[in-house]
Amino acid sequence: MSGVTQDDARFMAAAIRLCRRNLGLTATNPSVACLVVRDGVVLGAAVTAPGGRPHAEPQALAEAGEGARGATVYVTLEPCSHHGRTPPCADALIAAGVVRVVVSVTDPDERVAGRGLAMLRDAGIAVETGVLEEEGRAALAGYLMRQVRKRPHVTLKLAVSADGMLGRPGAGQVAITGPVARGQVHVLRAETDAILVGIGTALTDDPALTCRLPGLESRSPVRIVLDPRLELPATSRLARTARDVPVWVVAGEAPPSGLPAISPSRGEIDGAAASSPSTDTGSRLPHPISPLEGEMAGRPEGGSAARLQAAGVEILPADPYRLDALLAALATRGISSLLVEGGARTARSFLDAGLVDRILLFTGLAAIGKDGVASPCVSGRVPDGFSLRRTARYGADVFEEYERDD
Ligand code: AOF
Ligand code: ZN
Known about the structure:
The protein is of the alpha/beta class and 406 residues long.
C-alpha cells in the first residue's frame, strides 16, 4: 500500500458508511459502496441495489457520466471480474476511463479473488487495496463469513439489568433498557438478514421481532424459532404475522436418546435455565424439552405443524440441537447475518458452541433481583476470546460491543 493519502481514508470512510445503508437488503450479495471522485469532488455515489443488483460501480459511474474519465474510484469491496448476472464491474471502470481505484477489502468469492484488481492493473489503472480494511471488513462481516466459513455472521444481543439479569422467569417481556437503546436494536434488526430466539422466549414474551422504526418497517429480518417440540402457537404474534415477514421454525427430528434431560418449566426453557449450567453437548443445544415424567418427547404431532404451515410459517428440516449444521443450512438459504436475541439458554448454547462472532450488551439501570434469569454475559465480563471494541451511552443505558478475537 503505497500512495494512500488522508483524503483516501476520508473518502473510504464515507464509502463504508454508505454501504451500511443497504445491509440486510442485498443478500446473498454484499452491500458494497462506490464513490467516483475527481479533484476532491464526489461526482457519483452508489450502493449495491436492494436484491443485490445492479452492483455499486455501474450506478456510481452512470451518475458521474463523463466526469468519471480521469477520476479516482473508492470501492469497499474489490470490483468483480466475473460475468454473472451483470458484466464485470472491473470492465465498467476500465471503459469509463478512471485512473485510480482504491479498495478496502479483496473479494473472497472464488470467481473474483484478486482477478478484479489484476484486470484494473493490467489496464494501467493505479490500484490501492487494504484502505480502512478493518472497518471495511466489519461492514462486510456477514458476506465474508458466509463466503469463507459457509455460515452466517452471528451477533448475540443481550439486554441486561443493572444486577446482571435478563428478565424474570415466566414474566414475559420486562423493560430493561430505554427507548434509545430499543431504537438501536431495531436498526440492528433492519441491518440483519435473520433473527433467532428459542421457544421459551417465543412463548413467554410473544415477541414480534420485527423492525418497527418509522420508514424501515419493510426491513424486518426473517424470524427463526428453535422449537424442537413445535410448541409455537398458531395464535402467537410470530405466526399471525408470518405472511408479512417470514417465520422459520426449526423443529427437526426427535432428539437422540442419551442427551441429558433437563426439566425446566415452560417459562424456563430460555429464561431461568440461564442459571443452570449448560450441559456439554458440543455444538448441540442442551436438551430444552421438559420430558413428561421421563418420557421422551417424540416428533411434534402433525396437527401443530399443519396449523403453523397454514398460517404461513415454514418448518425447516434442520436439527435444532446441531447449531453448526443449522447455521450451514441458513447460509445455504442465503442468510449472511444472524442476530440471536434470546433467551439465556439459547445465548449460552451459541456461546458454548463457539458460534458467536459479536456480543452486543445493553445494560439498563433497572434491577431485577435474585429471582431473575442470570445473563451469560454482563458488562465487563464476557467469555474469554472476546475483546471490547466500542462503548456508547444510549439514553441512560450503557452499550458495549465485543468482538471475537480470531
Ligand atoms: C461488485 N460490486 O456492488 C457487489 C459485488 O450474482 P452476481 O453476478 O451479482 O455476483 C455476485 C458477486 O458479486 C458477489 O459474490 C461478490 O463477489 C460480488 N458483489 N461486486 O463489484 C458490488 N455487490
Ligand atoms: Zn460487480
